[in-house]
Amino acid sequence: MYFFQGCHTTHFSVKLFEDLAALRTLELDQISKSTTSFEMSEDVLMPLARLEKFSLTRSSNIELPQRLLCSLPHLQVLNLSSNGIPTLRREETCVAQQLLIVDLSKNQLSSIEQFLRGIPAIRQISIAHNQIVNFDSSSATPFLQQLDAEYNRISELKSLPDTVVHVNLAGNLLKTIPNAVTVLPNLVALNVSRNTIEAWNSSILMSPELEMLDASFNNLDTLPSEWLQKCEKRLAHLHLDHNQIEQIPVGVLLNSTNLQTVRVFL
């Protein structure tokens, strides 16, 4: 493992890592100030072909090569969080076949589909705290299991692969739970809190595996019975606090025998 923090530079020497061919983890933190830029060239990374985790965080004005993933063919974890990155593009011939976890949270991204397209193995994506409006990942990430997209500008999702089990869409612009989410057959945890969801246009949540549903801080005036039709015997945690619900309809939770937590207070 190699860790840089607070070195505040504009670039690295091409020879910096040439004696570290066996390196598995590289973590770079706070390497540039808001008044300067940092350019990570492809040549600097070329000696690190065996790298499995690459982290570049809390830095400003980052310039990354579009061939980043060509230099790191064995990469499994990529963390580019908290950099204020406005755009992120990848040369599509560069495919990291082993990349499993991608953290792009706390940037200024408005789109990430082009970067993700054709990276087949990704299981977890965090795009929290960006400016993303639309997200379509079914073809780009066919084995995705966990999506963290809280605090963006999402009002609808086009599609998600059936493999997804955890979805966090808190703090977006949702007026209803997207159909791409309601049809997921294996969904275990869903967070749609802090949106403007209303009860009148609700769809059935198709997953019988759903254990946690957080719909707090919305505009619900009742608990939609459609949400529980498939998962009522599995649901363990139901958060409905800070809505406009004064009373849960009689019988709606009658068969929810696994419930451990229910929060309904205003």
Automatic annotation (TrEMBL):
It comes from the Eukaryota. InterPro entries: Leu-rich_rpt, Leu-rich_rpt_typical-subtyp, LRR_dom_sf, SLRP. The keyword Repeat applies. Keywords: Leucine-rich repeat, Repeat. The keyword Transport does not apply. SUPFAM superfamilies: L domain-like. PROSITE patterns: LRR (PS51450). This is LRRCT domain-containing protein. The lineage of its organism: Eukaryota, Metazoa, Ecdysozoa, Nematoda, Chromadorea. SMART domains: LRR_TYP. Pfam families: LRR_1 (PF00560), LRR_6 (PF13516).
